Amino acid sequence: xxxxxxxxxxxxxxxxxxxxxxxxxxxxxxxxxxxxxxxxxxxxxxxxxxxxxxxxxxxxxxxxxxxxxxxxxxxxxxxxxxxxxxxxxxxxxxxxxxxxxxxxxxxxxxxxxxxxxxxxxxxxxxxxxxxxxxxxxxxxxxxxxxxxxxxxxxxxxxxxxxxxxxxxxxxxxxxxxxxxxxxxxxxxxxxxxxxxxxxxxxxxxxxxxxxxxxxxxxxxxxxxxxxxxxxxxxxxxxxxxxxxxxxxxxxxxxxxxxxxxxxxxxxxxxxxxxxxxxxxxxxxxxxxxxxxxxxxxxxxxxxxxxxxxxxx
Length: 312
What we know:
Elements: E1 3-5, E2 9-14, E3 21-28, E4 35-41, E5 44-49, E6 55-56, E7 63-66, E8 69-71, H1 75-83, E9 89-93, H2 106-115, E10 117-119, E11 126-129, E12 133-136, E13 141-145, E14 151-158, E15 164-171, H3 174-181, E16 187-189, H4 190-198, E17 211-213, H5 229-242, E18 249-250, E19 252-256, H6 260-272, E20 277-280, H7 285-291
Parallel strand pairs: 4-9, 11-18, 14-19, 16-17
Antiparallel strand pairs: 1-10, 2-3, 3-9, 4-5, 6-7, 7-8, 11-20, 12-13, 13-19, 14-15
Helix pairs in contact: 1-2, 1-5, 5-6
């Protein structure tokens, strides 16, 4: 069945890129609502559906926008909701960036548990992949193949002694997400920090919310949470970006040295190729519309392409 939250729950922090204070409140939403961001401005409530159609160009994070406002760095809160199988929720926000918290999805998972989760009266709809799709080139890419379950296999390769080649295989479930993925933090390299600041990014970044690698080591005194924390965080980001599809997917995603740009391209490619999937358990006209292609006409602007070794 579809799931939402039992009650409202809030937290506050600063935006990773803007450095500005931000408060978010997760709230229950009716069946078939999906995930919707809301912001109250001058007595008027602006809304933005978490959808690939609302994607906005932005480096190093996933940003969506519509109806007069945009929300930056959405991937961690979306990953928490999607990873914990929350289909319907409102995200009320008082700024233009989701707070970074500790750089992972764990604080948002804690919010979800504190609010409680409830089943709703309508079954979930799934998008089941029946033909392979691929985006990328010989250096990096993302594919999705038919599968009887929802899985992710992610590989990265960084020229750093503490990272190098890492591969992680994730079997989609709330317990696996909470135990294996949610606590993995975003990461960057010390030699990139000044360049990020020069582009107006990373203004709220610190060792409290980012793993920072020096040339041969780690600047964070507490060390890594997992030996392969970097690739786990990439899985976290991918789950958040797949949430922009608006419906859970049954398929096996293979990502190799990828990032938000290619994740979002894959989501768009799925919607642009309705012959590669079928809907399972479609119970509502919203998903019937998705199936007959009515959402495919509008192209989404892609974010700025990043190098394979850009920070997460």
